Amino acid sequence: MSPTVAIIGAGFGGLCMAIRLQQAGLRSYTVFEKGHDVGGTWRDNTYPGAGCDIPSHLYSYSFERYSSWTRRYPGQPEILAYLEMCADKYGLRPHIRLDTEVVSAAFDEALGKWRVRTASGEELFDVVVSAVGQLNQPHLPDLPGMSSFAGRSFHSARWDHSVDLTGRRVAVIGNGSSAAQLIPPVAEAAAHVDVFQRTPNWVIPKPDAVFAPAARAAFRLPLLQRAYREWIYRYAEGTLYRALTGGWSTGLLRKRALDHLHAQIPDPELRARLTPDYPVGCKRVIIDSRFYPALARPDVDVVTDRIARIVPEGVETSAGLREADVIVYATGFRSTDFLSPIEVTGRQGRRLGDEWKDGAEAYLGIAVPHFPNLFLLYGPNTNLGHNSIVFMIECQVRYIMGCLPYLADRGPMEVRPEAMDSWRRSLERAMGGTVWQAGCTSWYKNAAGRVTNNWPGPTPLYRRLTRTPRPAAFHFAR
Length: 478
Ligand code: NAP
Hints:
The chain is α/β, with parallel strands linked by helices. Helices cover about 30% and strands about 15% of the residues. It has 13 helices and 21 strands. The chain has helices at about 10-25, 40-45, 75-90, 175-190, 215-220, 220-245, 250-265, 270-275, 290-295, 350-355, 390-410, 415-430, 460-465, and strands spanning about 5-10, 30, 95, 100-110, 115-120, 120-125, 125-130, 150-155, 170-175, 190-195, 205, 285, 300-305, 305-310, 315, 320-325, 325-330, 345, 375, 415, 475. Strands 3-2-1-7-19 form a 5-stranded parallel β-sheet, with helices on one face. A 5-stranded parallel β-sheet has the order 8-17-9-10-13, with helices on one face. A 4-stranded mixed β-sheet has the order 6-5-4-18, with no helix packed on it. α1 (about 10-25) crosses α11 and α6 (about 220-245) packs across α7. The longest helix has 23 residues, at about 220-245. It is globular. The two termini are about 15 Å apart. NADP nicotinamide-adenine-dinucleotide phosphate (NAP) binds near residues 141, 196 and 331. NADP nicotinamide-adenine-dinucleotide phosphate binds next to α4.
């Protein structure tokens, strides 16, 4: 009998898992999705200018290549449409429960099954696959007076489209990848934009290109499409990854970013404020060609004075009041919380939140000791700063599919603590060679400074390590 599988989340990860189960003829799965439709981050992030800085010919499933991308870096609507198309094409919709948030999942040792609870009640599943991602809980800063603001305010991932920015004064707090994408179109519409920058970011150009109908027709040739995908992958791996690990391209990446800054910001005083003082890649490098020109506009100010509080009229800084009609919090996500706020309980009443109090961790980023038959997609230490997350998700889905045949014969499987210890040691060793640990704060690390989000190795190594499950790493119930 095929195992019953609960998948939490219908973004890139959850849909990939569902497709592979469907293709294997394992139809006893349910995808729980708290939002009103599929798409995950691509459904949530509808801010103006939203898009991906990894070319979509790579940022898409390897088994569902798509020739119709209209440009190298398509916008959010195209990526969302791709995911919706996948949900339809692979017949996933009957298995997806929308507007259904999983509030808890508890492993029942007597039954050897998971009790998955939603607002509509509790259901039993053999396996739980978390596909909630790392960037799904918006982070709002804890600034005094936020509720006193007299205008409209919202987070970048909860864009309020009812607010017309035309002719308004807009304050954007934060200057990460989301801010970099939304500031240029906001500046086009608004009367004035204040960008509140706490730390400058390294920015490199985005070599975008429109694909004319002839190019799209050419991409229908599987060979060409495969070659282009492979080229993007190899470039990211051979050049960008090397720069994140102190390799040959580190200086090159820094030079590219500085050249970009010099070319696009003529004012030396602004340029100085936009120049980071930490190693390139320590924080996520922004890939964008429209951000700096927007910051250089006369109606845009980069404010580096410390924010003291929010007041009804706007943002009060150490240098005085900056009036605003609208505040956009482009302040990122609670990235190190992982499955939170879902209450996950494993064997002997162990709570995942407690197990992870010093930082989330999982064997291969997929399995956690004491939590049998719980598998994670895009889990701890599987984020990338240089390549496509979809690649990592596909590796993880293949691994989980490889685990399922064991369950029928040998019952629930649980990764051994020794396997986890050895995994942790190798991660720590590899992490030492990366640029992420020292010199900056970033969403890759928890409050204690431990890098809980990123994969420190090359992605072909991750593919190799996750090719097939190693039974010796697991304890089986039978
Ligand atoms: P982010 O990179 O975490 O940036 C958050 C920004 O808010 C930072 O500038 C941060 O400043 C600032 N901030 C946070 N709390 C603050 C406070 N209390 N006071 C003042 N400033 C504060 O978040 P994001 O821009 O949403 O991007 C998150 C990730 O999503 C990206 O790194 C990327 O992986 C992904 N993303 C990707 C794309 C894409 O094209 N693929 C687009 C958007 C997002 P500090 O730097 O000083 O902390």
